Queue: 2 jobs
Job 1
Amino acid sequence: MAGNMQLVLAAKYIGAGIALIGLLGAGIGIAIVFAALINGVSRNPSLKKDLFGYCVLGMALSEALGLFCLMISFILLFAV
């Protein structure tokens, strides 16, 4: 019985670690969005305000997905 609980606990930690891989994707996504902003502003500085609005939207969407992954990891660790 105790061995079974240790197996469940190990699976819980492994699942939480796998769920955190999404944070890596969110970080890469934010970096790509800001790199595209820098590239776009350097090519056409007059579009700075429009591009910055799109940049903030892209960053928010990318970070939201990262926060969902973090939430799933916390649910696996502390709620189950």
Job 2
Amino acid sequence: MNLKKAANVKNIVCLAAVAALGVGIVIADKKGGNDNEIRKKADSSAAASSNAKGGGSEKTDKSGREKVILAAEIPELSCESVDFGGNVIFASPDGGYSFMENGDTVKGIAVQDDSGAEVKFSKEDGKLVLTRDDQPAAGFVYENHMIELKDGKLYIDSSPVEYKATSFSSYRINKDHVIECTEKGKYRIKDSNGKIVKTFELKENTGSKIKIKADDEGFYTEGVNDGWFYNVYRLGDDLLTTTWENVLYINGRELVPYGYTDDHVDPDVKVDIDKIGLEPMRPPIDYGSAADENNDISSLTGEMLSYVNEVRKQYDMPYVYGLDELDKAADIRAKELAENFSHTRPDEKESSYNTVLSSEGMVWWRSGENIAKGGADAKEVFDSWISSEKHRAVMLDPDMKYLSLAKYEADGETYWELLMFNDSYVPVEEEAE
């Protein structure tokens, strides 16, 4: 994918939103000056998207097309390493970086950018350093990808290169407590407020009340009433076992330190256990089929589709498509932005932006909106949105199916409306029953 450096968008003011019908706004408006990342690209920013069970549960739409079954997770828009033809930069658990050259750990790497200049990566005082032809540099282009170093953090095509542990290092033992492995054979307990506690009590599947203790000496479980050592018991569907050395296993898998089983981790790195992610994300399910008819859509919509789908392709996500009915709704919203530049409509009820979908006869369960003021063309506005986490999340929402872009000029200003929605959702839980 070729995502070149964002255009000069200092004069673009952006808003975006994500909301749920019957649930309310999920991501509230973020106005200019409060979002440091967006402030670098634009004067102000925010994002909007919505869920509703309005699409029904039928298998086909009115035209006979098969409806889509989607999951509601947004994938992480980042990677853990960048491979420059065998020379690799890996994100480390401490937030830094390490290097490998043809499989060997090295102190730095050198690559050649698309212009033929020599680019070198190294570390000084633990911080990543980038030079180009022996001069300090902030970025370069490699095989049409933009590589940037901003505030000591590495980015590829505006997405951060970040470490994510693959080791099994924490376990939620109940709704109020989490067990974390801090070092091999050493553990700690955190309550729902993040406070470290020494012990707590709970009931296992047989109804027996047991006392849990976890510390640097290992993981212990004993009966409250009988004082027995419980080395095998069940909590829900999980089987917990401990060895006589007090090492904890869950379903046969040992709880190990954060980063313990990961590849390419610098052995000298001191891990911050508080960076552990306790709730694993569920991967998206099969997306099924989607509409592939783009008849009668506007040229602006067609242009934006090409930009957005190129990025979605990078993340192995389903394409979004044009829809002439959505173009009409986007045109209405673009004109409304001149009256009220926000995600609410200029009516007495201050209705949400997504009511335009229903008023134009569209049934929807999920919707999203990005808006902007200023910008010379669709590409410049796209560059501004894709460089912002909240706006990018709307455009890369895996549950969206259709997209439209419209603009409206009034009083010397240009208003941009990106409207997205999905009309055919079958909840995974309901389908499985």
